[in-house]
Design brief:
Distance between the termini: 10 Å
Helix content: 25-40%
Number of helices: 13
Oligomer: single chain
Shape: globular
CATH class of the largest domain: Alpha Beta
Number of strands: 11
Bound molecules: phosphoric acid mono(formamide)ester
Structural class: alpha/beta
Length: 333
């Protein structure tokens, strides 16, 4: 492991080992020690965060290290990532210097850089994360990029294993209505990891809200190798039948990428139907309810579901800490 950018870069054995380490450390069976003693890790946040920022800072501290949090455009200079541009606009520093200076101080760099939802063909290539990867000689950790949120997906897989035990599960990833289009990193990484862990994955979304075609090919490939399956449904009601996990998330449509107002108009028709509520949960086999958070109550999910015993969202958020500690301990030797 040289970087942690997406789960697809790792095999099933490595992914299982990280989750085993995280569970063993959380339950006190293993002491991860202080592998980061005397070392610092930079956490670069282009966007807001609660869970990622707090869990990374705490995790680095618990492993004996020091976290350096930087917010380009706020607590550090605005950053240009494109090659060969004339920097006569608003950007003060190029990522080349930023990374090369930073790695003289730190042992790894974590990066959060959301999709701007402006240009699909550009953003699906994850350009800012790719620039960090190309310039850095220390490990880079993806703390949510335009296309992936692998730390979240690992915490999600850990939570499913802890709550439901070993083996494949029937897992529903359901789109939900939200007042504005959101990035696809979380659903992309959840679907990918579910396929890598061999679960039977059902993805429910209205027509026009398909995940990236190339990613879906990769997901289908992983299901074949790992013994799971994937199906796409466009009917929110029957989507909940027989599943053991309900994972809710909203995301934007490729069709309206760069046209937020168009997406808002399109999704208006789904407002009342595409919400996780008690009647839909009743169609499952006592499914657990998951969401990466933050979540809009009574928009994505009703109070009745998120406050019910089926909801595991707080444990899921706690697992970010444990699984990221396992990743950091493995990555930083
Ligand atoms: N789930 C998640 O990444 O939360 P934050 O955006 O608060 O970090």
């Amino acid at each position: 492991m040289t970087n942690f950018l997406t789960t697809s870069a790792l095999g099933r054995g490595d992914l299982d080992a990280l989750i085993e380490t995280a569970i063993a450390a959380r339950t006190g069976r293993v002491d991860l020690g202080k592998p980061l003693a005397g070392r610092s890790v930079a956490l670069v946040f282009f966007n807001p965060s609660l869970r990622t920022r707090a869990s990374m800072q705490v995790g680095i501290y618990e492993l004996g290290g020091n976290a350096v949090v930087l917010e380009p455009g706020s607590t550090s200079w605005t950053l240009e990532h494109r090659e060969g541009v004339v920097m006569d606009g608003g950007k003060t520093e190029h990522l080349k210097e930023f990374v090369r200076v930073l790695e003289r101080y730190v042992s790894a760099i974590g990066v959060r850089t959301f999709a701007e939802l402006k240009d699909w063909e550009t953003e699906r290539a994850d350009p800012i994360l790719a620039a960090f990867e190309s310039y850095a000689r220390v490990p880079v950790i993806n703390l949510e990029s335009a296309m992936h949120h692998p730390c979240q997906a690992m915490a999600d897989m850990m939570t499913i294993k802890e709550k439901l035990g070993l083996g494949k599960k029937k897992v529903l990833l359901t789109w939900a209505w939200h007042p504005k289009p959101l990035p696809m990193a979380v659903p992309n990484s959840f679907a990918l990891a579910a396929a890598q862990f061999g679960h039977d994955l059902r993805i429910a979304h209205p027509r026009g809200y398909e995940l990236d075609g190339e990613l879906m090919e990769s997901i289908r490939g992983h299901t074949e190798v790992n013994g799971g399956s994937v199906e796409i449904v466009n009917d929110i009601g029957s989507a909940f039948d027989d599943v053991e996990v309900v994972y809710a998330k909203s995301w934007g449509s490729h069709r309206f990428y760069g046209d937020a107002e168009g997406d808002v108009r399109e999704r208006a028709q789904y407002r009342t139907e595409w919400i996780v509520n008690e009647s839909k949960m009743a169609r499952t086999v006592n499914a657990i309810f998951m969401h990466c958070l933050p979540v809009r109550r009574n928009v994505i999910v009703t109070d009745g579901v998120i406050d019910s015993p089926a909801s595991v969202v707080i444990d899921e958020a706690e697992n970010r800490l444990h699984v990221q500690k396992a990743i950091l301990a493995k990555l930083i030797k």
